[in-house]
Amino acid sequence: MTLGERSIRVLVAGAAGRMGREAVAALAEDGRFHIAGALVRDPGRAPDGLRVFTDPVHAVEEARPDVWLDLTDAESVVRHVDLAISFGVRPVVGATGYGAEDVARWQKACEERGLGGVVAPNFALGALLMIRFAQEAARFYAAAEIVELHHDGKKDAPSGTARRTALLIRDVTGRDVPIHSVRLPGLVAHQEVIFGGTGETLTIRHDSLSRASFMPGIRLACAKVMELSTLVYGLEHLLW
Ligand SMILES: NC(=O)C1=CN([C@@H]2O[C@H](COP(=O)(O)OP(=O)(O)OC[C@H]3O[C@@H](n4cnc5c(N)ncnc54)[C@H](OP(=O)(O)O)[C@@H]3O)[C@@H](O)[C@H]2O)C=CC1
Ligand SMILES: O=C(O)C1=N[C@H](C(=O)O)C[C@H](O)C1
């Protein structure tokens, strides 16, 4: 999707990270997008060939992005998204670790401005289906627990996906769901929702085996956000 004749200008915050580097490559090979800038902490680690910024205000003022794709971390994402919205730049929030109160504030601010936004705790199709199936199963079981397993470089726990899953199950059952976090080398991103019943269990599991699993969702969010006039929480709002 383009704004008239031109490409969608995306600012990638956290462009030097594991996700940022893959997102830059995935957007760059898609003609709908132009990477207007890369926000990094250390310019020496920025992907080649991009306009590099270390100050978020300069990034917004000079790169003039349509979309702020945030793939930083829990410490930075909240102030970045507040800033982007205040400048009228559409946020696509991939980073995790924010609170429910942050999402509520972003929704209100976007609503007031008629600005599109996407908060996506998980961009992988299978993860969205796992959450949906877990919500359905939750109606039939008295107890559930979540086990989320990630690579040992992940900074936040529990994961954004696990927190979102627990919230959506609570919407259905009114019950809180315990979350267990595992961090180990060799893992990428995995989650099990285990339901316990009478003499049986049901396990719904999703595995992201590589970060390629997140890239179609990132492209979808960066394109569709241009058509929105409110902020949606969960990529599923763009899929079903
Ligand atoms: N929604 C989804 O589907 C997915 C979400 N994620 C989330 O995305 C985020 C990034 O994950 P990942 O790539 O593995 O993490 P990394 O630590 O590899 O990357 C994060 C990058 O952001 C940079 N960064 C942090 N703060 C700033 C800032 N203020 N300005 C500029 N750069 C900054 C870091 O720099 P430095 O290294 O110098 O600190 C680092 O390069 C996490 O929150 C993770 O949970 C991850 C996978 C999928
Ligand atoms: O840090 C990661 O890797 C991931 N983070 C997201 C989360 O916190 O849920 C999404 C996915 O699990 C990968």
Automatic annotation (TrEMBL):
Annotated InterPro entries: DapB_C, DapB_N, DapB_N_CS, DHDPR_bac, NAD(P)-bd_dom_sf
Catalytic residues in the record: 150 (proton donor/acceptor), 154 (proton donor)
Domain Dihydrodipicolinate reductase C-terminal per the UniProt entry, residue ranges: 126-239
Keywords: Amino-acid biosynthesis, Cytoplasm, Diaminopimelate biosynthesis, Lysine biosynthesis, NAD, NADP, Oxidoreductase
GO biological process entries: diaminopimelate biosynthetic process; lysine biosynthetic process via diaminopimelate
Catalytic activity of the protein: (S)-2,3,4,5-tetrahydrodipicolinate + NAD(+) + H2O = (2S,4S)-4-hydroxy-2,3,4,5-tetrahydrodipicolinate + NADH + H(+); (S)-2,3,4,5-tetrahydrodipicolinate + NADP(+) + H2O = (2S,4S)-4-hydroxy-2,3,4,5-tetrahydrodipicolinate + NADPH + H(+)
Subunit structure: Homotetramer.
Protein name, as recorded: 4-hydroxy-tetrahydrodipicolinate reductase
Naturally occurring in which organism (per UniProt): Alicyclobacillus cellulosilyticus
UniProt lineage: Bacteria, Bacillati, Bacillota, Bacilli, Bacillales
Encoding gene, per UniProt annotation: dapB
